[in-house]
Sequence to fold (643 residues):
Amino acid sequence: MKTSRRNFLKASGACLLGLTLWPAVKGFAGNSTEYNTSSKALAGKKWGLVIDMKKCWPKYQEGCRKCFLACQRAHNIPDIANKEEEIKWIWTEPYENAFPDGEHEYIPEIIKGKPFIVLCNHCENPPCVRVCPTKATFKRRDGIVMMDYHRCIGCRYCMAACPYGARSFNFSDPRPFIKEVNPEFPTREKGVVEKCNFCAERVDTGQLPACVEACPAEALIFGDLEDPNSGIRKILASRYTVQRKPELGTRPSVYYLI
Amino acid sequence: MLVKALTGSKKYWVWVIFLLVLVAIGLACYLWQLQKGLTITGMSRDVSWGLYIGQFTFLVGVAASAVMVVLPYYLHNVKAFGRITILGEFLAVAALIMCLLFIIVDLGKPMRLLNMIFYPTPNSILFWDMIVLNGYLLLNIIAGWHALEAEYKAVPPPAWTKILVYISIPWAVSIHTVTAFLYAGLPGRHYWLTAIMAARFLASAFASGPALLILLSYIIKRVSKFDPGREAIQKLAAIVTYATIISVFFVGLEIFTAFYSQVPAHGMSSIIYLFAGLDGHGKLVPWMWTFAILAVLALVLLINPATRTRDTYLQAACAAVFISMWIEKGIGLVIGGFIPNPFERVTEYVPTLPETLIALGVWATGFLILTFLYKIAIAVKEETV
Fold:
């Protein structure tokens, strides 16, 4: 059979296209990869957090910032002065900004303008996971919404999708801004998104999240929302709690006691 | 046929070199961005998409010009469009390449772009946008090129290209719909959370794309021996007229819903920010009023037959449509969606110089491709005239 150069090029092109599409075919046809956790891992079906602001505020007024610092140290969070390019995992916002729909002009003085601890809500129905085009952000079976820094292409679609402003983008190389590097946790590089990971790396080795452990007032209560006997469920059953923007249907796993 | 792009008058080469210089400047700035990261742009934690994604959003609309000539020609046998279908298809090719380039320059990790294919994610609208944009690009390259080749050889185009053309008609609708869905389904972004987003995209696309095609037709008429034909231009002008009316009407619908309901979560704050300023911030106010004035001016010139049928007025109207739609979709829509932020605060956005030069470089790349494609197409058409 005689093959012209034109036909040869056509056939090569078709083969190249096939090779490009093959991983896509595998992706659609294959099973999702399972992951293993240590036997020491905390057992929980759906992790959640209750933040008791009444316990927090007296300490906060005294200048306590232990939860932020513990988080910053544990996760190599860079300290970037430029507010527009800040990396934030856990921080505070005044009540009116954290709960924009829960504000009116006659709210009690006790909460007006008070700082509320905010972080990723690890939503049960996370918009960030829905929009991510590479599965770089995904939800674990235990409800923790995770980031894979190595898969993120930096499209920042998740930042547009998150209604809680919980996501930060590494506009530049974060490493020069890390005060003291913790070798136990990866540092990030420019061009990827990051956020609070509920200390998945600690939960998986039997420890509580760094912020929960660091809080001297025990204002942060971490636990399994699916276990009716857990401490967190007992609080939720006995006290009135609020979530941020529940009307959006994202079903946050972070609850506030006021 | 490709070689026809390499012969031309002195003016042609001056234009090509001018574009090449812009491409080179843009590329140099992009290399800088690759090294330093997106910190060299004006984007921030709050306004995480800016000029790049705005241009991408607008140019998806420009790609619509193809379907607005292909559809009447193939489905309704409007003979006048036979002369310019190829111009529409090639404009779509150039616009789509610009779209893809704008997405690439916006990525924080462009070297990982293929993760979109290695880990296909059907629940992400961005995945489907990749499919529809690349598909539409391929459809237009293949159908357009075969049609031109057939014209060159003075034979009818192969029958199978007609199938591609028919597929390309609903496919054109899909690129706008899917791009609108990128924005429309996000909780907490009130300005984008509107069911008519896709309809708005289609309307403004069918206004801005054909408006550009009309302007390009006038330029072609002046610089070459090929005349796209007065009838084709006038028919396009009618399309631009209706699309602009619908487009402005849709913007009005958004404003009514937001303000009559008085529900803040229907985009009221964003619209106030865009047209009047919010909390003392109002960088986009002059832009949005320019949009409004140009849109009204365009409508006056287009609706009145006395002005629509006069070349100079039509050119002015088309320029007004193109610029106003560019402001509305390329700037207002994307940036307005991020303001106020999830904490009800205003962080403003202004593109930086390198960011602007990168964007200009991408536009220049698109016009370079457009120039080459049009040069080839016109050379073929001049021979057959």
